[in-house]
Design brief:
Shape: elongated
Order of helices and strands: HHHHHEHEHEHEHEHEHEEHHHHHHHHHH
Largest sheet: 8 strands, mixed
Distance between the termini: 41 Å
Number of helices: 21
Number of strands: 8
Strand order of the largest sheet: 3-2-4-1-5-6-7-8
Bound molecules: guanosine-5'-triphosphate, magnesium ion
Structural class: alpha/beta
Helix content: 55-70%
Radius of gyration: 30 Å
């Protein structure tokens, strides 16, 4: 699923990642590749244009070009844009208090997955502690009522049905009274699907909506139909009104276009996705996770976020210059040590350094040693940290005493610092993350 889209986007990142500097042309090239990938994924052209323009605008702003690691910064921008296009955060159904009855209408074209999704949603609600009832309001297809009954038995949820009924609004009203007598607080209504949107169907749905006064009107659409799923949603929304969309068959070879276009085209959130035929194969849609999957780079994004929290960009750029000139001080060393501590996973940081993947393991890093280094460095004066060359034998002895360590340990730290400094210069061709480099170089 979305393999093509993911590999397309990753191709785009090749233009920008691992570079210490990127140009406007690099960005334009990368965005171009993303554009093609999105179009191939059947994303609506208007949506693609908007996506591309807003990404270029933000990326070409000083933000990326001047960033410490412009490639990572670019990935982050693309990620955030994707999340925004996918609707921001997840959006569950919004229901009334459990002591009143809430109603959810499931609408959609024939074969889109309404009946299956009704059962799946009811099961999800039951697991969340509500007492659902399924109502069979598809009175057109002969086997529809039976299909819902079978599903109800399978997931142990009651199904309200009336043999030979003709009017879905009447069935609903009777179901509602039954629900009130039977401690039901959530009604999920399965409705009739048509081959295409026609007046008869819309009239019936409009009447049912009036009778049911639903809390949620969810359009069930087949994600395999790509962009037409969005068009259908738009029409349903205009004629009946929707609160959200369920995309089914997300497990099959969908190209993702519908999911990516829906929010922008219809203004309605994608709330759930169906991921298989079983009643359990139903998930709340998470834009963040979906974007991460498309990028195949969730880690980069969270790392950039974390790094931004701890390292001030300008300071980092200055540090970068010092690394190149081998004029890093013990003061910088101490600052990086503290940054490493705040980063959380050291391993993910190490894996970020191109060419280092798998070579250095977090296990090889002695965290106690970091702590000791920090204590030793804290026992030095600012002047000593600015210029370590003034640290002669008597200063060394004083630092050792002040930090509760030995003269040998102080000397070892200084030696390691000197070595790391020249190594960092070499590594800086590959990585712009001083803390990560420092951590890697401290590994045994
Ligand atoms: N793989 C997969 N199959 C699904 C999913 N959702 C539904 N299906 C299958 O799609 C077919 C149609 O599903 P239904 O729930 O009967 O669709 P419907 O909209 O109620 O169809 P009508 O009542 O005829 O309009 C069934 O074979 C389902 O098993 C899904 O998320 N993944
Ligand atoms: Mg059905």
């Amino acid at each position: 699923m979305f393999d093509k889209l993911t590999s397309g986007v990753q191709d785009a990142f090749k233009f920008v990642t691992g570079k210490s500097q990127i140009t406007e042309k690099n960005i334009a090239d990368a965005v171009d590749v993303i554009k093609t990938a999105l179009l191939e994924a059947d994303v609506n052209l208007r949506v693609v244009r908007r996506f591309v323009n807003s990404t270029i605008e933000e990326a070409q702003g000083a933000k990326v070009l001047r960033a410490v690691d412009p490639g990572q910064q670019f990935v982050k921008i693309v990620h955030d844009k994707l999340v925004a296009f996918l609707g921001g955060g997840d959006q569950d159904v919004v229901l009334k208090n459990p002591d009143t009855v809430s109603v959810i209408l499931m609408l959609g074209l024939q074969g889109s997955g309404k009946t299956t999704s009704s059962a799946k949603l009811a099961l999800r609600l039951k697991k969340a502690g509500r007492t659902p009832l399924l109502v069979a309001c598809d009175l057109v297809r002969p086997a529809a009522v039976e299909q819902l009954s079978v599903l109800g038995v399978q997931i142990n949820i009651p199904v309200y049905k009336e043999d030979g009924a003709k009017d879905s609004s009447v069935v609903f009203k009777n179901a509602l009274s039954w629900a009130k007598k039977n401690m039901i607080n959530t009604i999920v209504v399965d409705t009739t699907g048509r081959m295409q949107i026609d007046e008869v169907m819309m009239d019936e749905l409009a009447r049912l909506k009036k009778a049911a006064n639903p809390d949620e009107l969810l359009l069930v659409a087949d994600s395999m139909t790509g962009q037409s799923a969005c068009d259908i949603a738009k029409t349903f929304d205009e004629k009946i009104g929707l609160t959200g969309v369920v995309l089914t068959k997300f497990d099959s070879d969908t190209r993702g276009g519908a999911a990516l276009s829906l929010k922008t085209v219809t203004g309605k959130p994608l709330k759930f996705v169906g991921t298989g035929e079983k009643p359990e194969d139903f998930e709340l849609f998470h834009p963040e996770r979906f974007a991460g999957r498309i990028l195949g780079m969730g880690d980069v994004v969270s790392l950039v976020e974390k790094a931004q929290e701890v390292i001030d960009q300008k300071e980092a750029a200055e540090l970068q210059k010092k690394i190149e000139k081998e004029t890093v001080t013990l003061e910088d060393w101490l600052a990086q040590l503290r940054a490493i501590k705040k980063m959380g996973s050291i391993q993910s940081m190490l894996d970020m350094i191109p060419g280092m993947q798998g070579q250095v393991n977090e296990k090889d890093i002695d965290k106690a040693d970091f702590k000791k280094q920090e204590v030793i460095l804290s026992s030095m004066t600012k002047k000593e940290r600015a210029n370590y060359l003034i640290i002669g034998p008597s200063r060394r002895a004083r630092i050792a005493r002040g930090s509760g360590t030995s003269v040998a340990e102080v000397a070892r730290l200084i030696k390691q610092f000197e070595k790391t400094r020249s190594m960092m210069k070499k590594m800086s061709k590959f990585s712009k993350n001083p803390a990560a480099m420092q951590a890697a170089l401290c590994a045994r």
